[in-house]
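User: For a benchmark we're assembling, each entry needs the component sequences followed by a predicted structure for the full assembly. Here are entry 17's components. Please fill in the structure.
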Amino acid sequence: MMKKTLLLIALFSALMGSNQHSYAVIEAVEFETKKQEQRYKVLIDQLRCLVCQNQNLAGSDAPLAKDLRDITANMIKQGDSDATIKAFMRDRYGDFVLYEPPFNWSTAFLWLGPFVLLVLVSIGLILNIKRRQEDELFKPTHATDDAVRIKVRNLLRDTPSIGADSVIKPNSDNKK
Amino acid sequence: MKLKYIIPLIVFFAMAFLLAKGLTLDPKAIPSTRIDKAAPNFTLPVLSSEAEQFSPSELKGKRWILNVWASWCVSCRYEHPVLNDIARAGLAPIVGLNYKDKDDEAAQWLKERGDPYYKSVVDQDGRVGIDWGVIAVPETFIIDEKGNVIYKHTGPITRELVNAEMLPLLTANTSAPSNN
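Assistant: Structure for entry 17:
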């Protein structure tokens, strides 16, 4: 058990190590303020590397990713907003450059699909439960129409109650 | 009641259809954002004639091809004969965007393999490439008379591709000029 745990820790730290290595490729960028540096880090985390496609700008050492990081850094230094920088990238590379797809017609199903499905399934479930609860006697017994209610009452009166003596011993009545 | 038991079958076939459709799509393809929009403008020095500048406005009123290439790009070797063919046929002027290359190596490349380009412009830092949304060299664009991008292909072009996709766009305009 102890050995296994140690092995797991070793494996995990090896993985962490290799991960840190991929980040070490990124060149250091000097910013005037801490806030700018923070924005830079968030942005290159949210923008996708077009070459590798499954990495963000922060984790890629592709030349294009470096160029796009430079542009991001320069735009931040020039005072451009995050929205402007993202718009710059989207103009050139489309929505794909954003890791989080924006809401529009082509992504509406992606964003709303799960909720639509949830609502549909909930409605189906509620209807199903209601249908099971309302057996054929439920509605007539709660009817506002007097004629229907009288009919139901007569039906109920004529129906022997389950467990009553008259049902179990039908012959006892005849003897009397 | 019977319909109830058919529904899972319908759902199964719908999913199978969508998954099969998904297999035919290329998940790596990134559609160009520039299609049917004005081609990004630039002014860059011409390769092997640094004093000269080229800008897309020079070819306004003509249908032309922008081909992004580099001497370090391996798949550019495969498409180069195809570019030579297009130039020889005089289908449209081809402008080369020499992407992040060394001038002497680029000139050497053209000397060895033939120069299909109307002009090759030098994009040393790749900024013009970024404006055009270039992801990987080679890439080929077609720009129409109004200066709008009407076609983009990522990766090397082949004769089949030229015949099937590019030729109809290039011959749609009867006044296609020949420059080489």
